[in-house]
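Lecture 7 notes. Example A: sequence first, then its structure tokens.
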Amino acid sequence: MNCSDHPDREAVGACVTCGRVVCAECKEALGGRVYCYTCSLRVPAETPELSGRSSDTNLNWFQSHLNWTMILALLGLSIPVVIAAAIGAATDSVAPVVVIGMMALLGLLMAWGWALRRRNRSLWWILLCLFAPPLGLLIFFYLERRSDNSGGPPRPPQSRITH
């Protein structure tokens, strides 16, 4: 019997999923089972023992908990900003707040960038995460202010009960 993709080559096995016969070059052995190339791509990544892929047991805590890493980076880097704000308020100086705030923002961007790269996400997500919520709040407050300033004196609420 010959390979399905290479008719001039002898088959060494059959795919356990689709049954196609495969040669030594086309054979994908995962977890002791024979697959064709197409079916080997469909083997779930959640089952490392079947897929032949390594499990994530050698990751440290920060690598296996990326969401918490991003939250801890935000909390940890906001502490110096609060301390700098207290120092700035006590000395009537803005310089410590600006310098430490910029350093904390740079550290936050580096931590979030690392976490996003580990998730195979684009770094544009940082801009989306940083600027979308404040932009949404600005739009909300602008529209709220615009509806309050209609140009005339406030009207009393109208009763919905009719006689």
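Example B, a different protein, same format:
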Amino acid sequence: MDRAYVLALPGLRPVPSIGITLALWLGLLLGAHFGFRRGLWIPVVYPSLAMGLAFVAITIHQFFTEERQRMWTKKAFQQYVSHDVVERIMDDPTALQFGGELRTLKSAEPDGAATPLGGQGLMSAFYLNELLLKLTHRDDPHEKLFAAYDEAIGALRAISRDKAAVATIEPVLRRFELTLLQEVGYAVELAREAGSRTPIAAEREYWYVVERGPVPAGEGEPPPDTVRLRGLTLIDLERGRFEDAATVAQAKQLMRLLINHSLDGQELSTRALVREMRTTLAPGPSSKEEGSSR
């Protein structure tokens, strides 16, 4: 009986283990009581101590074993999901559900060497992937967008191999963002003023209004959902030129405005991750800025 008790207890949770231990102990007491009334002496102290010590030892062993497994599981999942999600999984393992649609890839041909991405190139690739997932619809054909994505990833791979080329990430992202917006149906007007259709003048300043386009900037309050741009920036964007530093900076402001509008309130996880990394690595006022490549 003692051997069966010791072998069965480790496979049980704490509450059932306590119940079984108490039931066995009460059974021992009742057996000793009825045996005593019939003149049979059944020892109680040593068996009770043996059960108690066995219960304590097995419970301690279970605690450390389960804690070790819990820490291993947390470490494994934290590589892919947030800390809050991991904690919910640990508290309720039934919340972890895997699913999805299985599709079959019938053929594939390599288009070149798949060199690895790293550093800002890798984070920028995550950003592009997230934009595609959030702004495109399943099964919609976008041949031009696929070509733009392939070109962008190729450029990011080259940048990952040459750290001195990190400064060229911004033009890569802006070109892809512009193509993406155009492919999903957002008419990004860059060549003419909204309403009057007057050609953009390089020397003028404009407000770019969401869902309208560029309008000449006046002295009054800016319209809602706008960003102020040089005419030269709009012309450079139209022609795909990013040699001018002011163009690069203002193009980023414009693309962020239009993409945020297209996301309709959805937050990009890559932006949140960059903010968190900057807060961790460089706490202070500058940590509130987002990554320069986004």
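Note on Example B: The two ends are 67 Å apart (CA to CA). Confidence is low (pLDDT under 50) at residues 286-293.
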